[in-house]
Structure formats: C-alpha cells, structure tokens
Design a protein that fits this description.
It is a single chain. This protein is mostly helical. It has five helices and no strands. The radius of gyration is 14 Å and the shape is globular. The N and C termini lie close together (5 Å). The C terminus is likely disordered.
C-alpha cells in the first residue's frame, strides 16, 4: 500500500488531536494511559506529538475511552473551523490508496 502525503489540513487536525489527548491525560502518566488503552506507549507518544496525524479509529476510540472523552467531543475538537472559516476536512477531496 502506498500512502499519499498528508494534506496541511490533516496535519493540523493531527496536531489538534494530540493536544486534546495531552490535555485530557493531565497528570496521568503516558505509560499508564497507553497500557489501559492497550496501545503501545510509543504509539500514544507519536499521536500526542502529531507524528501520527491519522491514527486508526480503534486506537483513538480506546484512548478516548480511557481518558473519559466521548468520540463526539474528540471529533468536534479536531474539526474546529480553521482561520479561513471553513471546517477542516469539509472539502470533498477523497484520497485513494493503491496497492503496491
């Protein structure tokens, strides 16, 4: 599978997701949070730092559950309107993946 480069909107959304998870985690350790969510601490670190801007849905669902976040709240937070006024990800551009 070949991954297409992320769009600037996807990168920004990933950064907002990471910031949200860091805030929700608060004083709780990254290790404890990751283990409770059954993801690796490295995965959580990459998501929180924005290095993984488009993590898998089950990963985010597990982390959100551990942190007491609803998926609706996560979605609303990461899709806040950009400075231009249009919500991030509201375009109709689709990304195709091709097998290698």
């Amino acid at each position: 599978m070949v991954r297409l480069p992320l769009t600037p909107a996807e990168v920004e959304r990933g950064q907002r997701l990471g910031a949200l998870l860091r805030r929700a985690r608060g004083e709780r350790s990254m290790l404890e949070t990751a283990l409770d969510a059954r993801v690796s601490p490295e995965t959580l670190r990459k998501i929180e730092s924005g290095r993984v801007a488009t993590p898998a849905f089950p990963t985010i669902a597990a982390i959100a559950e551990v942190l007491g976040l609803s998926l609706d709240a996560v979605w609303a937070e990461i899709n806040q309107p950009e400075r231009g006024g249009e919500p991030a990800g509201s375009g109709h551009r689709t990304r195709q993946r091709t097998a290698s």
